[in-house]
Amino acid sequence: MNSNDYDVVIIGGGPIGCITGENIKNGKVLIVEEHQSIGVPLQCAGLISKNGVKELGNPKGVVNRIRGAYIYSKNNSVKIGNEEIRAYVFERKVMDKDIAIRVSKKCDFLLKAYGEIEKDKNDYKVKITHLGEEIYLNPKVIVGADGSKSITGKKLGLVNNKNREILSSCQFEMVNANVDEDFVYVFLDKRYSERFFTWIIPMGKDRVRVGLIDKGNCYNKLMKFINENEIAKEILRNATIIEFSSGSLPIGYLERTVKDNVLLAGDAACHVKPLSGGGLYFGAMGGKIAGEVISKYLNGEISRLEIYDKKWKEKFGNEIKNGIRIRKIFLKLGNDTLDEIIGKLAKSDLIEYINNHGDMDKQASLAMKILKSLDFGIGFRILRDLL
Ligand SMILES: Cc1cc2nc3c(=O)[nH]c(=O)nc-3n(C[C@H](O)[C@H](O)[C@H](O)COP(=O)(O)OP(=O)(O)OC[C@H]3O[C@@H](n4cnc5c(N)ncnc54)[C@H](O)[C@@H]3O)c2cc1C
Asked: Membrane-crossing residues (predicted)?
């Protein structure tokens, strides 16, 4: 491999690195992935909205269809959904590989290859460590699609602990569960997860993903949930763990995701819904925008990559910003106030509104509507928790 063989090097062979590569219309693209296979290790619950699936190019790997959600708080619960299919559950290993197979028609892949940017005069170059060998490439553009902990973003000084928070996760795949396979189960209960939530997602008739995102030791927290939560105990009475996974999730809003000849995409750019942790829908949209901007840059239509920031912000920047605002309120709410909100929601006519108009890709707008519709008593409690 010669140093000028590629116009674009993408660091990270996850779905968003691949989708970015797929949308580069001109130039030679190399995707480098540190693992030996695309799609592993798993770090995802695999729940994707209809629109998200479309943005990802309708990949293979659907294992279940979802019509709604049971949302549980400490003592209350609410059921959202009707006959309409709203989301799909994917086997990510199958999905990621299918996307990579599609993309391999346009891009080259190098596996077991660790990519790092290095400053080189005015621009950046890439150092790849592949099976003990060091390869240096000088592409015109580099994409940091290197996931939640993005070393690329850190080296560029675009990502830090002030503009994004990293949460941890633990998840089990379990079989022989006793579950309503059409609905996901979401537990908004700070006894288990203080900073996010816990879930049971059916992958089919008796197969589920049980997971939790929070700060700190998520394994112990998930075990506590499985052993103590009455709903979980009922669903998982005869269930066995057949897969364990852990991972991390970035929540934040980056003002800048471009520096010199490098841009960030997907989790590396914090293109993640702050209220649910879903990163595939915004990530895929951002990857497409990145691909289009790079194409224009390569054919000389534009001389800088900064327009990427403007374009993704126009498309979904506000949804991330508003999600972060609501998340700040959520973090301050006591568990009893949260419980009361779910209790009120269960009795309100908002459920019909959510069933008819709710959009799981516009969670911030929906959460805002719910908060605004709460009565004076609970509004006062929220205020008390916030102060
Ligand atoms: C527990 C959990 C549950 C989730 N559930 C959902 C869900 O249900 N729905 C949803 O939409 N989203 C979900 N997400 C988020 C979703 O998984 C991510 O948003 C999505 O995977 C982002 O894709 P990506 O390509 O940006 O990053 P990744 O999928 O993380 O891919 C990045 C790739 O880069 C590689 N890499 C990193 N550094 C280097 C390097 N230096 N050199 C070479 N390769 C490198 C990694 O090995 C990896 O393959 C969840 C996340 C977590 C943690």
From this structure: none
Atom of ligand 1 nearest to the CA of 38: 49
Q: Tokens standing for 157?
A: 């000084």
Interval 225-281: pLDDT, tens: 999 999 999 999 999 999 999 999 999 999 999 999 999 999 999 999 999 999 999
DSSP 8-state secondary structure symbol assigned to residue 269: G
Residue 376 pLDDT greater than 60, yes or no: no
Of residues 138, 384, 84, 379, the one with CA closest to residue 261 = 138
Ligand 1 pocket check for 47: Cβ under 6 Å:
yes
Say yes or no: CB of residue 129 within 6 Å of ligand 1.
Answer: no
Residues with Cβ within 8 Å of residue 218, at least 6 apart in sequence: 168, 169, 170, 212, 246
Residue nearest ligand 1's atom 13 by CA: 278
Contacts from 121-125 at CB under 8 Å and sequence distance 24+? Answer: 122/260, 123/260, 123/261, 124/260, 124/261, 124/262, 125/3
Q: What is the pTM of this model?
A: 0.95
Answer yes or no: is the C-beta of 15 below 6 A from any ligand 1 atom. Answer: yes
Q: What mean pLDDT is reported for the chain? A: 94
- Residue closest via CA to ligand 1's atom 35 equals 12
**Cβ contact 125:112 at 8 Å:** no
Per-residue pLDDT reduced to its tens digit, 153-192: 999 999 999 999 999 999 999 999 999 999 999 999 999 9
Contact indicator for 23, 287 with CB cutoff of 8 Å: yes
Nearest CA to ligand 1 atom 12: 278
- Which of 37, 23, 140 lies closest to 96, judged by CA? 37
